[in-house]
Write a structure and sequence with these properties.
alpha/beta, 5-stranded mixed sheet, 20 helices, 20 strands, 40% helix
Length: 586
């Protein structure tokens, strides 16, 4: 699939030179810092050397004082407290974090957690969960990673004499639930300085506030940061500001002294190196998610709160089996969906993909939606049948506000929620076709045609001679990487094949590239292009071409080198002259 290369507009040269001089760094590094809004030595110091002292005061969050007061009252009166959370990674880590904190503050017999069943209860606060709380004498429910739109459910709980504290990070509706406290930095009236916490992050702010009020040692709280880091990575929230600080120290905890449950997941995942955000996204998170997708999210919380090795091993083994089953379901449904699109007469001409199949497994349709978005690069919704309704997951392309488009179809929906790039929705079966038409119409009217082509954002142009161990070492200080703080992507123009380029991989599907640039100032540089083996003949033809890539350390046969991880290759049209139509990213 053809990709758009969008080169970030560089800061003014004098500003780059000024910052480089002040912090004594390579101008390439100064350029990257300025692009991230880091424009002074003080801000650079804070970026390169995060501190937990930089965390915001949790009492700046609207309703935080009310939440802490109600929690204190429950503890003092020995009330029964239920922690209720979503079945995904963010929800289960949030429940585990609250449970581990509160189990030493409450009578353990008065504390319980509850994860709704994905299939019989669905997303969010459920009537069944509230009924369970009422029947078992719970007078306070702390709802996490959902609830901000649960107006009717909170009213129902109140009628049964149950108070609710909501810890959410999703976009609220026009009316907030009548809960004791609604903690959500996305509230229009919330003055909290950082708006992009995960659901687990909002829960952390609650226990941070409680700890501050009671002068409890922060060291106890910081032991929970491994859970929070897993939620930040898995929920794909921006790794900027407060999230970056929490992820930075959470990764330290995860690498040096993880909780038993997470340590066991790391072991079954086969991770034997320093854990990164990518390891969480692709290896740890999916295993936690698999419990809620295939069986029950309760198993994930049981593992994350485990304090006995044998029990943790048993649960982790079961979750690993769930993950294998999830992968097969994901693969089979994705293949079926792709085949349907390719064989359809009308689907290829659309700006959207909306597919419904009552047989598809509800637990993996979000993953399938992501895969289809990658394959066809357009806003995508995958629906299945559950409890007589169509329910599904939606994913967007870069720059397009999916949540807005879905909200414009609200008259056809029973329920919906989410973010700009991901959402969930429920509708009546008879509304599927009208919804497809309306959603297609809204997207067609609002999407920019360029958004339908995958975009590679390029941070800076380099010569191959710029790639040095010193530059690479400085780039590692930008970690942890993630949304809004991505691994820097570079572009080098007019390179040409050198001795050693070859196809690699079991089916020769990858390209091991060795190139020099037209300056010939440095020795050749090598890179790897995954699934780019088909480009070998053109690369080997002697043509000049441009490459975009990130940098990674590669160790082979005891030798360490810096290699390029190729994102794309663009061939020049005539010799070294490239008829460019560069775009600038404002």
């Amino acid at each position: 699939m053809k990709k758009r290369w969008v080169i970030n507009t560089p800061p003014e040269t004098n500003k780059i030179q000024e910052l480089a001089h002040k912090i004594n760094c390579n101008p390439i590094i100064a350029n990257l810092l300025l692009q991230r809004g880091i424009n002074s030595p003080e801000v650079a110091q804070a970026f390169f050397y995060p501190s937990l002292n930089m965390l915001h005061d949790p009492f700046l969050m609207q309703d935080m004082d009310k939440a802490v007061d109600r929690l204190d009252k429950a503890i003092a009166r020995e009330e029964k407290v239920m922690i209720y959370g979503d079945y995904d990674v963010d929800g289960t880590t949030a429940v585990a974090l609250l449970y581990k904190y509160l189990k030493n503050k409450c009578n353990k017999n008065n504390l319980e957690y509850y994860i709704p069943d994905r299939y019989t209860e669905g997303y969010g606060v459920s009537v069944k969960g509230i009924d369970y709380a009422a029947e078992n004498g719970f007078s306070l429910i702390i709802v996490t990673d959902c609830g901000v739109k649960a107006v009717e459910k909170v009213r129902y709980a109140k009628e049964k004499g149950i108070d609710i504290i909501i810890c959410d990070h999703h976009t609220p509706g026009e009316i907030l639930p009548d809960a004791v406290a609604v903690l959500d930095p996305q509230r229009a009236d919330c003055q909290y300085p950082y708006k992009w916490l995960s659901g687990c992050g909002v829960s952390f702010k609650l226990v941070q506030a409680h700890s501050i009020k009671h002068n409890l040692p922060m060291s106890e709280l910081y032991r929970l940061l491994d859970l929070l880091c897993v939620s930040i990575a898995s929920d794909i929230v921006p790794i900027t500001g407060e999230n970056r600080i929490l992820a930075y120290f959470g990764l330290q905890q995860l690498n040096e002294k993880p909780s038993l449950g997470l340590k066991t997941i790391i072991e079954v995942s086969g991770i034997d190196k320093e854990i990164t955000i990518n390891d969480i996204v692709f290896r740890i998170g999916p295993r936690i998610n698999a419990a809620g997708r295939v069986e029950s999210g309760n198993k994930a919380v049981a593992l994350l709160t485990a304090d006995e090795k044998l029990s943790a091993n048993d649960i982790a083994s079961a979750i690993n089996i769930f993950n294998d089953k999830r992968k097969k379901l994901d693969h089979d449904i994705t293949e079926e969906a792709i085949a349907h699109i390719l064989h359809s007469e009308i689907e290829p001409s659309k700006k959207t993909t909306v597919l419904f199949n009552p047989r598809w497994h509800k637990g993996v349709i979000g993953i399938v939606a992501s895969r289809l978005t990658e394959s066809f690069y357009r806003p995508t919704i995958v629906l299945t049948e559950s409890n007589g309704m169509a329910t599904g997951s939606a994913r967007s392309v870069e720059g397009f506000d999916l949540y807005y488009a879905i909200s414009q179809c609200s008259e056809l929906l029973e329920n919906y929620g989410g973010h700009k790039y991901a959402a969930g929705l429920t509708l009546r079966l008879e509304n599927i076709e009208p919804f497809k038409e309306k959603f297609e119409q809204i997207v067609r009217e609002t999407i920019n045609e360029e958004m339908l082509t995958p975009q590679i954002n390029i941070d800076a142009q380099l010569k191959l001679s710029d790639i040095t161990p010193e530059l690479y070492d400085m780039l590692q200080k930008f970690a942890p990487f993630g949304p809004n703080n991505s691994i820097p992507v570079f572009m080098t123009e007019n390179v040409v094949n050198f001795i050693g380029t070859r196809r690699v991989g079991r089916n020769h599907e990858h390209l091991k590239l060795v190139v020099v640039d037209d300056t010939r100032v440095c020795k050749d540089r090598s890179g790897i292009g995954f699934n780019m083996g088909y480009l070998y003949d053109e690369v080997n033809s002697g043509k000049y071409f441009d490459i975009c890539y990130s940098l990674q350390e590669n160790e082979f046969m005891g030798k360490t080198d810096i290699q390029m991880i190729l994102k794309d290759i663009r061939f020049n049209t005539s010799g070294k002259e490239n008829e460019r139509n560069e775009e600038s990213k404002a």
